[in-house]
Structures are given as C-alpha cells and as structure tokens.
Amino acid sequence: MSIEREVKIMGLPLKVSVGDEQELELNSIISFANEKYTEAERKNNNIVDSNRLRAIAVLEIVMELQAIKGEKENNEEKSNKKIKNLIDMIDSLNLPV
C-alpha cells in the first residue's frame, strides 16, 4: 500500500508517495538531505539565497556519492585481481583432472 504525505526537504514542501516498506528509508534520506542543507547554511552564513544553499548541499551529496562510487570500483578491482591471482595459483598446481 502506498502512503502519500507532505515532507520538507531543504526547506521546500514536497508531496511524496512511498510504500510502507520504504517509509524508514525515505525518512533517513530526507534527514540526510536536510542535514546537508543545514551544514551548507552553517558553512556559508554569508549566503542568504536558499536556492544557492540548496545547490551547495546537492553538490556535497553528489561529491559523497562519487567518492562512494570510486571506492566501490576500487574494491571491485582489488577483488577481481585477488580472484584472478587465486585462479592463476590453482592453475599452476597442475592438479590431476
């Protein structure tokens, strides 16, 4: 069942519709976005334009996502290399078939 409710994200009201199972995840996402917006306000107290502050907050979120993506790709590359090395080592044992 889908729930529709109004939330505030970075100071803007927004109607969202989510399933019951997504409710906690949505709350966490909204909280994270609002934290980034509050952080942008605090770091840039000379900026009063809320749209600019939202843009700064979104940029911070995207930068974090890019960092996570880079770490994931790096970990996958390391794992693939380890797997290849293990396969090569097993192949070099010349085990009977």
Polypeptide structure, described:
The protein is of the alpha+beta class and 97 residues long. Helix content is 66%, strand content 16%. It contains two helices and two strands. The chain has a two-stranded antiparallel ribbon with strand order 1-2. Strand 1 and strand 2 (12-19) form a beta hairpin. Helix 1 packs across helix 2. The chain is elongated. The chain starts with a strand and ends in a 5-residue tail after the last helix. The mean pLDDT is 91.
**Overall residue-averaged pLDDT value:** 91
Q: Give the strand line-up of the largest sheet.
A: 1-2
Please bin the fraction of helical residues.
55-70%
Q: Count the helices. How many?
A: 2
The span between the termini is 55 Å
Apparent shape: elongated
Largest sheet: 2 strands, antiparallel
Sequence of secondary-structure elements: EEHH
Instruction: Provide the structure class.
Output: alpha+beta
Beta fraction of the residues?
15-25%
In angstroms, what is the radius of gyration?
Answer: 23 Å
What is the tally of beta strands? 2
Unreliable runs, pLDDT <50, ≥5 residues? none
Helices and strands in order:
Blueprint: E1 2-9, E2 12-19, H1 23-43, H2 50-92
Antiparallel strand pairs: 1-2
Helix pairs in contact: 1-2
Short descriptors:
2 helices, 97 residues, alpha+beta, single chain, two-stranded antiparallel sheet, 66% helix, 16% strand
Short description:
The model has no long low-confidence stretch (mean pLDDT 91). The protein is 66% helix and 16% strand. The chain has helices at 23-43, 50-92; strands spanning 2-9, 12-19.
